[in-house]
Write a structure and sequence with these properties.
Blueprint (H helix, E strand, L loop, with lengths): L1 E7 L8 E3 L1 E5 L2 E2 L5 E4 L18 E3 L11 E5 L2 E6 L7 E5 L2 E7 L2 H11 L5 E4 L27 E5 H17 L17 E4 L12 E4 L2 E4 L3 E3 L18 H7 L1 E2 L2 E10 L3 E4 L4 E5 L1
Parallel strand pairs: 12-13
Antiparallel strand pairs: 1-2, 1-13, 3-4, 3-19, 5-11, 6-7, 7-8, 9-10, 10-11, 12-18, 14-15, 14-20, 15-18, 16-18, 17-18
Helix pairs in contact: 2-3
Organism: Ornithinicoccus hortensis
InterPro entries: MoCF_Sase_C, MOCOS_middle, Pyrv_Knase-like_insert_dom_sf
Pfam families: MOSC, MOSC_N
Length: 281
């Protein structure tokens, strides 16, 4: 097995940024989901309710060493925006049901995001200290933490499992006498790490500890999927898949499951092509 892709998402719910290598910190991959968009109440605004966020391409030095700023925002038809990591006052924010604090990026960043998405009242905020956020005690250790990822520092998916899911999706369409669908791309699930060469689909469900290159990760739990996976990030149009088919084949406890949550045990560097070894099945 080997690592076939690394994805960063500098601003939560914006375009995926593929990279050849990444630094692994205790909070996750450096440069991943350290910024997010909130409304006037401080509540997360994601592409689930505002697919126009997919228009935004965000870069940091982790995704583009020549970026020339702490954050660069780009979108078709508007000038690029370069921002420094903000300082000063913090504001309360809500990421799903988790209350946190974040640092506002400022009026210039807010106005740019509002212009690109066509929605007023949005604010761009930055996580200056991910150690303040604790994770679900049902599976996390007290010292585990992350920035603005949904629930875990790192996520991992298997291309073998995606192939199986696409097979099921085609079966579902055939049974319902629907047109043959195109294959779902891995970007629907927004994993940080993609692994090729897994012998069986969903074998990763049973992993408990792995090593990627020289970096070890705990694999505590699977990821339950939400309706955001039904939005095509390219067309920004919603549909029924993959939730419809996952509900038939991967439903348990009232939730649908695809991919795994990872917690770094050490820090280090990883790169596309690194071997992936299961240390504790």
């Amino acid at each position: 097995m080997h690592l076939s892709a690394i994805h960063l998402h500098p601003v939560k719910s914006t375009a995926i940024r593929p990279v050849a290598s990444a630094t692994v910190g205790r909070a996750g991959l450096v440069g991943d989901r350290e910024w997010m968009v909130v409304d006037t109440a401080g509540t997360l605004v994601s592409a689930r309710e505002l697919p126009a966020l997919f228009r935004i391409t965000a870069d940091t030095p982790a995704t583009d060493p020549a970026v020339g700023a702490d954050l660069r925002l780009r979108a078709g038809g508007v000038p690029d925006l370069h921002l420094a990591a903000p300082g000063g006052r913090q504001v309360p924010v809500l990421l799903h049901r988790t209350a946190l604090v974040a640092t506002p990026a400022g009026a210039e960043g807010d106005a740019w995001v509002c212009r690109v998405t066509g929605r007023d009242g949005l604010r761009l905020v930055w996580c200056d200290d991910p150690t303040r956020r604790r994770l679900n005690p049902d599976w996390a250790r007290p010292e585990d933490h992350t920035a603005f990822a949904d629930s875990a520092p790192v996520s991992l998916a298997s291309s073998t499992s995606l192939d199986r899911l696409n097979h099921w999706v085609r079966e579902t369409a055939a049974q319902r006498e629907e047109p043959a669908p195109g294959g779902l791309e891995m970007g629907r699930f927004r994993p940080n790490l993609v692994v090729d060469g897994v012998a069986e689909a969903f074998a990763e469900d049973g992993w408990r500890r792995i090593r990627v290159g020289s970096v070890e990760f705990r694999v505590p739990v699977r990821i339950d999927r939400c309706v955001m996976t039904t939005i095509d990030p390219t067309t920004r149009q919603g549909g029924k898949e993959p939730i419809r088919t996952l509900a038939r084949h991967r439903r348990e406890g009232g939730k649908t499951w695809f991919a795994m949550k990872l917690v770094p045990e050490v820090t280090g560097r990883i790169a596309v092509g690194d071997p992936v070894t299961v240390l504790e099945p």
